[in-house]
Amino acid sequence: MPDIADRPYDDAPVSTSKDKDAAVRIATAEAVEDRGNSFAGWAVTISRPSAELYTWWRDFSNLASVMENVERIDVLDDTRSHWVVKAPGGTTVEWDAIVTEEREGELIAWASAEGADIANSGRVAFRDAGARGTVVTATILYDPPAGVIGKLVAKLFQREPNIQVRRDLARFKQLMETGEVATNAMNRKQFEEQDA
């Protein structure tokens, strides 16, 4: 098999590959850390400059506002954050994420610290798309809790990362282009306003 570096140039995201085994091999080769054997990935074009999108994303405390299953993200320091994420069955999973590679305005890569409830690693890349804005690509490797059964249960409850990354990037696009995320469900802020 040819080396990843020898493959013909293709700017399409790995997640669009029809050969899922090849996509996982490529994602694993591109990942800074190999934490996980399941692959999730998606790309979206957002009509905003890459520097602006990168800056917003890099403040990890912002991400809970567009990531549906994220309960909270505690920023510990410049490279570490603690994630609390909803899982099927009303439970949560937690891990510390460590930034493993960063290129200002272009890329943020991370890996979960040892002892994570869900081992994971990945990257979010911001590529200039000219007048169209920026192509934002998220690539994630993860080990689902309870293996294949856990992955099927997560999919059933719409908490499977491949479903979530697509939805979360769509919400990110909405927020960056319109200033709000359209939803028919009440968010935490709306519940607080209602109770006041």
TrEMBL record:
SUPFAM superfamilies: Bet v1-like (SSF55961). Transmembrane segments: none annotated. Signal peptide: none annotated. CDD domains: SRPBCC_8. Residues 46-162 form the Coenzyme Q-binding protein COQ10 START domain. Belongs to the ribosome association toxin RatA family. This is SRPBCC family protein.
